[in-house]
Structure formats: structure tokens, C-alpha cells
């Protein structure tokens, strides 16, 4: 007599259906489904340590390519490999992620083969480049990489900035990844979407910072001979040109003296002025004195004038002059002053950051 009963045995997560006839009268047995793997998304190690490879980036206004703002680490657990199909990058920050970034595909995703957080050509291949859907929008990046079970890979997110951008100093840009919703992936054994760990991940901030170009002024004095005990002698005119990103505040300048004369013995006083009318001459009542009157403590010495608070507006050029008074007959001696690149200390008024500097050193004539 045939027994019609089917016995269901439950052993943990393993189910076996016994005694139930299948095709041809054979018993049916069903093993459990393959386990589903887990994918963990996190910031890569390039963001950490005393001197991280990826930290806050100051970016000048203009065309700047491949500014690295994020390193991602994607790790598969030991259950199965993970085929990572795509990844969503979200844009954040006060800058406009369409008009201030490059007009064509400004966000790029690279495979970071050596995990150093830098784009190494040709070792780190470009996986995809896209545009954001809008300001603070998103970009779906194609990955198409397979991570072996128990393995991991690193990826780099980089931005291109727009040469014609109207961004102001202090505006910021920040890539983010919401791991729970950003990933399209498949387990290589299960064929199922993996579990995803990671939460919301923030990259580094890029901030727009102004630029200051320094040069010899158009009225920088030519070499000339001086009368004995000359005063009000303009030794140097320096021009300061700010780009359109923000006003630049000159905080201090450091002068370096040179020449055959003895600067400590022969120069009675040294002063710095804002050259209000840019004529390269000292005009009392017009040109504003910056800092205090000083003297050299040694021959070929240096002097730092601080607390200047001299501001150059966006897109404008201003000038400063260095003025000597001599306390002796200058004879056949020469005197010269210059400002080296490190001799300019300035701050962007909006960003609060040191501007990008170019053009120094600047020097007067003897």
C-alpha cells in the first residue's frame, strides 16, 4: 500500500522534502538557496592619517582638471564575489554643480589600482565620466568591476572645474555616496543583489579660492642717482592683481635689502604705502601708510611690515610702494630692495584662505 504522506524536515535553514514523488515516481529533495554576499562601501585609507593624500582642496577659479575628492573602498565578504555594476555619486556644497564645474562630464570615476588615492596614468583606468543631473544633483557612474570573495578594490572620484565659471571665493563642492541606495550589484554565485553596508559617505571638500598676481608696477622706479640725505625716495612699486573670485587682503610684506651700501647704517627709515593713484610717487595726504616706520638691524637685512589690511577688490589691480629716507651722503654706493614670493602674506576675504600667488619676486632698481 502506497504511503501518500510527505514529510517536511526543517534543519536550520536547510529544508528537505521527503517522500513526495517527483517525475517518474522519484522523491523530490530541495537544498537551500545559495547564501547572499555582503558588499561594504567605505572611504579609502587615503582620507586618513596625519598627512592624508586626500584632504580639503583649495581650487583656483578657472579650468582645473581631475581634482581628487574621494577614494572609495568596496569590499566583498567571503560568501561570494560581487559584480559591481554602477555607483551613484551625489553632489553637495554651496557651489553650482553644473555651471561652476566643467560643461561636459565633470565628475569622473577611476579604478585606483595601487590604492594610493592619486590618479596614476596609465595605471588607473577611467571607468566613467558623467554630468550631475542638476545643482546638488546626482550622477550614475558605470563601474563594471568584479570583486572576488574576500577581496576589495579602490575607486577615485574626481571633479573638473569650468574655465568660465562665475563661482565666488568660499564656494564649496563635495561628493557623497549613500551606500544603501547608490549601488547596483550582483553576487557572482547567488545572482542576487548583495547586502550593502556603509551608510552615507562624504568625500573631501573643494573650495574656490582667489588668486593674486604680483609684479613690478608700471611706475617702478628706474636706476638713478640720489642727492645726499635724500628722503621720500620710492625704492619699489609692486602691483597686486586679484582675479574675479574674491577680494584679496594683503596682511604683510617682508622686504629684503641688498646693494653695496650699508643698509643698517645708511638708511634712516623704511616705510610702505598704498599707492592710491598708482603713479609710483609718494603723495602725502593721498597715499595711505601701511604699518609702522622701521629700520634695518643689519646690512642686507630683512623687514616685515604686518597688519597692513590692504585690500585689492575682485578683478582689480592695486599698487604699494616702498619708501626710504637716507641719513648720509649716498656717494657711489648702491641700494636695492625686493619682495620674494614668501614675502607676501595675503588672505581671500570670502574664503579666508591664502590666495594662489604668482609673479614674485619683485624688485626695485638701484
List the helices and strands and how they pair.
Layout: E1 7-11, E2 14-18, E3 38-43, E4 57-60, E5 64-76, E6 82-92, E7 107-111, E8 126-130, E9 138-147, E10 152-161, E11 172-178, H1 179-182, E12 183-187, E13 195-197, E14 200-202, E15 206-209, E16 211-216, E17 233-242, E18 248-258, H2 263-266, E19 267-274, E20 288-294, E21 302-305, E22 310-312, E23 317-326, E24 336-339, E25 344-348, E26 356-358, E27 362-363
Parallel strand pairs: 3-13, 4-15, 16-26
Antiparallel strand pairs: 1-2, 3-5, 5-10, 6-9, 6-11, 6-12, 7-8, 7-10, 11-14, 11-15, 16-17, 17-23, 18-21, 18-22, 18-24, 18-25, 19-20, 19-23, 24-27
Q: What report would you give on this structure?
A:
The chain has about 375 residues and is an all-beta fold. It contains two helices and 27 strands. The longest helix is centred in the middle third of the chain and has 4 residues, at about 180. It is elongated, with a radius of gyration of 33 Å. The termini are far apart. Residues about 1-20 and about 20-30 have low confidence and may be disordered.
User: How far apart lie the N and C ends?
Assistant: 122 Å
- pLDDT averaged over residues: 90
**Multimerization status:** single chain
Radius of gyration: 33 Å
Give a nutshell description of this structure.
With 366 residues, the protein is mainly beta.
Task: Looking at this protein, list some descriptive labels.
mainly beta; 366 residues; single chain; seven-stranded mixed β-sheet; six-stranded mixed β-sheet; disordered N terminus; 27 strands; 46% strand
